[in-house]
Amino acid sequence: MTRPTPLPSDLEIASAATLRPVAEVASDLGVAPEHVEPYGRDVAKIDLAAAANEPRGKYVVVSAITPTPLGEGKTTTVVGLTQALRRLGSNAVATLRQPSMGPTFGIKGGAAGGGYSQVVPMERLNLHLTGDFHAITAAHNLLAAAVDNHLHFGNELDLDLRNITWRRVMDVNDRSLRNIVVGMGARADGLVRETGFDITAASEVMVLMTLATSYQDLRARLGRIVVGYTGEGKPVSAEDLGVAGAMAVILRDALKPNLLQTLEGGPALVHCGPFGNIATGTSSVVADQIALSHADLVVTEAGFGADMGAERFFNVKCRVGGLEPDAAVIVTTVRALKVHSGRYDIKAGRPLPESLLAENPDEVRAGLDNLRAHIEIVRAFGVSPVVAINAFPQDHDSEHEVIRELAAEMGVRCAVTRHVAEGGAGAEDLAREVLAAAEEPAAFIPTYALEDSLTDKIEAIATQVYGADGVDYAPAAARALATYENAGFGELPVVIAKTHLSISSDPSLMGAPTGWRLPVREVRANVGAGYVYAIAGDMRTMPGLSRHPNAERIELSADGTITGLS
Amino acid sequence: MTRPTPLPSDLEIASAATLRPVAEVASDLGVAPEHVEPYGRDVAKIDLAAAANEPRGKYVVVSAITPTPLGEGKTTTVVGLTQALRRLGSNAVATLRQPSMGPTFGIKGGAAGGGYSQVVPMERLNLHLTGDFHAITAAHNLLAAAVDNHLHFGNELDLDLRNITWRRVMDVNDRSLRNIVVGMGARADGLVRETGFDITAASEVMVLMTLATSYQDLRARLGRIVVGYTGEGKPVSAEDLGVAGAMAVILRDALKPNLLQTLEGGPALVHCGPFGNIATGTSSVVADQIALSHADLVVTEAGFGADMGAERFFNVKCRVGGLEPDAAVIVTTVRALKVHSGRYDIKAGRPLPESLLAENPDEVRAGLDNLRAHIEIVRAFGVSPVVAINAFPQDHDSEHEVIRELAAEMGVRCAVTRHVAEGGAGAEDLAREVLAAAEEPAAFIPTYALEDSLTDKIEAIATQVYGADGVDYAPAAARALATYENAGFGELPVVIAKTHLSISSDPSLMGAPTGWRLPVREVRANVGAGYVYAIAGDMRTMPGLSRHPNAERIELSADGTITGLS
């Protein structure tokens, strides 16, 4: 059992770091100076021209078992693993999502990673960075203004006012904007109608940016965005409204990934940040393409457990981007496996019970079904899994041993990693396993063919990935699926928006639930981004602030120093 | 008479320019490399530490006669004059406002300057630049979210729901957001109330940024922002809501001015962009302080005619920033003086009539009262005026001669400038006059003392600057003034929001109107920014898009090239 002295806070560790000039970081990665545009001293944008036609590096995704509401450390693992790989002489790079600024002022400060496995500069990462989220907000809202402007000037395209799906976005936690009425006032102030705001991370433009492979593709996808439907049910697009080119112009610089660094000075590409529930929850294809052009090994993250993030990573991101994954890390913790024993009643937003900390290998064993299911999910894609035991100071060796036994039994590589407390040095065992796994021959197999019907795709994910017995559609969902097939959206991949706290759609079901059916309440289409999503749960797309949000603790001193960010 | 071949478009000229590395531009200005943070290759932010305690340069403001709706070329004159001054060996720098992005997609593309007197890179200038407007939007809207969050959690501060003055902002032309109802939906979605959005340029935070002199001052002003009033009429501030520190953190980098360059490679500091009607319409104090610390001569701009922009520049910006102006350029055009003859019925948004182009020195003479009034306005501040005749290709020498005669009669320096067609070379005569004027002893005298009552201040501007016979207050305006005096806001300077198309408050009155009274309909307080404003006209704070906005003509090509921006 390890009981080190308590770590300093993430902000303390990040603030104490001496950052390398970003030009050196880029040069280590192998990106030519003409493709590096500095944004401040420690951040740069990388030109899309830095991508080669063919990847040279191995491609590793970090996924996890079904997490507790606290999260099990995927991002810290991406950073720690990358740091370790560089220590072992591999030119490794981490590719990650950018944190959303709004929630930084909500419940807690942001961060990418934690302890001695973080991406820095932490303050810029959590605030504006290079303004990409702002650009996405502006492009999204220009389209919204064009919709209402079109209605104001006579609605030539015959948009059905009761069927306009395009809302507005803002990167702020503001519950009062969820449902609003616009166009109040006089005749010159537009048409009165109900609509609302989502947080920018939930914008279709955000996920579209992660899936666009070039400026040309960006422009084309923007044009295909559907803003609503005519009285006869015909989709109306951003192209129809004539503003897709202007949106692309607003997004031009935002399509260039941002280069930051790990605490150990290695490269980290941070780009975009779509939601993990209604969207793919992955960073961008272009960042990974650039990374794979230069690095020996690219480590990226897919949101939530392998049922959620990894499934979408494989079926949507890899397929759209023509990316071939070589290995998948499954982050596992003792505490989460204990929760999967079913002996705890865990509620989101509350701390885990103290009793979880007692040495109890049997309780870990009782939760192993969840890990087993995630290993099988990854294997079904033809990709080598590696189990990463993300060690906490309160863990006991006997508990780690139980996990190792399962891995051995299933013939899966496994390592304990202590990157939060020890940085890259603590993840070297994991790095060696990942290097070995990535060398194994991989044969990537998606869950479904794009030519399959939308219902077949949803069924394939529900039964083959989640282990459901089948799918039940609410009448509105069935109607929407028929509409989308008719409108020609049938060949899009699908995303299923469900809870991330269970492999099933019921957040209270731990382990590997069986004997359940997936209830699809509603189906929507992000035609521009390029997928249809089925909603099987409550999806909040605009968070609120708490009674006393973190904003009250954040302060700027006279010399410009920031405190309270985490 | 000059009839050159037609000029290429602003975008063509800007695109053809070869930009100097921004580090060289900074070095020429005299800013040390440690204070220069590159944002891309051709833009940098300048650290506030680059400002010295004492200014070393002369300070020149560019104002104008009462303009036609097309504008008479103040910005081009700032740029052309700075280019000319550098040609003459003076280390001159231009300080300018950043154009607002929203309107770029509205009626026309943006720009700073025109022809061969522009600030570049034009595309970045007109889009996100370094994200300052986005940061201002985010800080403003965090406060708005905090207001509604406070109401949602019980309204401990007893805000009167009918007297909440803080709205939201966005940098987009979107008429449907002018008046909205928020908080629709369920109990968890906040309180239902009516509010709205303004464009970001109209945000109090925008003008606050231009008047803040340090991080400490920024933080203090943010805390003083009034968001509304209690049932008993007591103001409630951002400090009361506890989020002023977080707002300051969001704005930290935005308080650093942006260094760009003129087409001739000289330095231009571009920073913030408050409205010229309800706000001061000037760029920031900190940019000018930095500029004055290094340059021989700083040329800045004040919005609209001298009655509007120069008055606020002197009475508000110079006083708040402790800045001492040395000379004021009054930009004059033949076409505007002809309009001031009163013989034309000019409408905003429509082209000027062809008949204006005929040689007609008498018509110019008939409009001279307007120029005379602006010269007297500038002189009353104890500052040397210089008349700049901004020559158009259609002008006739006889028409210029009429203007020269008035200047001679009044003992005012005067020069013709052809900077749009010829760049700095065309403004060298003007530059010589400005250098001479700036060497004359100046004794800056504000129009009123800060200790005067608010009504005395409004009256002083109306009678002494505008030439009104007096002021009439609507009952609500009189009540508001009494409330502000009682609340302790009586020592703030004032801004009068009126039309810029006449020295009077009636846009149809040309020349130098007499025999009229200023009707003040409403009075509001921007307590955080630090001024009270009286409204004497219709002030639109959220523009709309036209039927076929410029957004429809803006396009991104596959190689990332932007077209249609102007």
UniProtKB/TrEMBL annotation, chains A, B:
Alphabetized Gene3D superfamilies for the sequence: Domain 2, N(10)-formyltetrahydrofolate synthetase, Formyltetrahydrofolate synthetase, domain 3, P-loop containing nucleotide triphosphate hydrolases
Pathway in which this enzyme or protein is active: One-carbon metabolism; tetrahydrofolate interconversion
UniProt-listed Enzyme Commission number(s): 6.3.4.3
Residues engaged in binding ATP: 68-75
Highest taxon above the source species: Bacteria
GO molecular function terms attached to this record: formate-tetrahydrofolate ligase activity
Alphabetical keyword list: ATP-binding, Ligase, Nucleotide-binding, One-carbon metabolism
Record field: transmembrane: none
Listed SUPFAM superfamilies: P-loop containing nucleoside triphosphate hydrolases (SSF52540)
PROSITE patterns: FTHFS_1 (PS00721)
Reactions the enzyme catalyzes: (6S)-5,6,7,8-tetrahydrofolate + formate + ATP = (6R)-10-formyltetrahydrofolate + ADP + phosphate
Pfam entry (one): FTHFS
Record family assignment: Belongs to the formate--tetrahydrofolate ligase family.
Protein name (Swiss-Prot/TrEMBL): Formate--tetrahydrofolate ligase
